[in-house]
Amino acid sequence: MQISFKGFAFGAVVGALVLTGVTVTPLRADPKKNVPTPIGAWFGIARPCAPPAGDTSSLHAALCEDVCGLCPAIPGTLPPELVMMPTLLADSTMLADDAGELTLYHTTAHGKWMVSENDGLPDRPGTTRYRATFFWLGQTPPALGVLGNAVRPRFVTYFDPTDPDRMIGFIQPYFFPIATGGIVNVIPASPLDLIASNHIPAIDPLVSPLPDGCQLDKGCLGTYHFVIRRVQAE
Questions:
Q1: β-pairing verdict for 23-25 and 40-48
Q2: Which residues pair with 133 in a beta bridge?
Q3: Quick one: how far is CA 233 from the chain centroid?
């Protein structure tokens, strides 16, 4: 798959998760009172891991090193920050919006989240790791006003039950140029699959799993580290 990022100003990160060869456990709402879970609405800021990472703590710097080493990125594609609002639902689905929708317009993200185990991702002592991916549709400059791409990130958070209203984590967005002139480029119709014929993007953002880590030649734009905080009821 050859992907060109020229002229693409990536303006947002943060929706369907299908994992192959990975042990995952869907999370359901715990009926017991006073048992913290990550279910709820969250708000946070993500910053690129790629050097210079900017004003970040040693904790975030260590997380980035564990996740992506020197954290390669495609120059000119990562904004200096992503302000995001993910919502984790009890049925293991999720929704997410971010500030990029105000500039380089894209749709609300929809996706899936699960407990993540045995997938090679870094652990953090005392936390439960959740892994998700979501998916949105966006524009590709200079052809604004028409569908140009889809973005599907790997989204990983670490939940600490002793600090249940904050989560540290990272995002690795993958870019899929699925359309030309607003029309999705699809695989040819096939008599072998009459339902799918002419309805599957030639560069399919739902192919799973995503490549390991952040592989630039397969569409990864880079790695962000973040802290999200729970939106509290008044």
A1: unpaired
A2: 112, 154
A3: 26
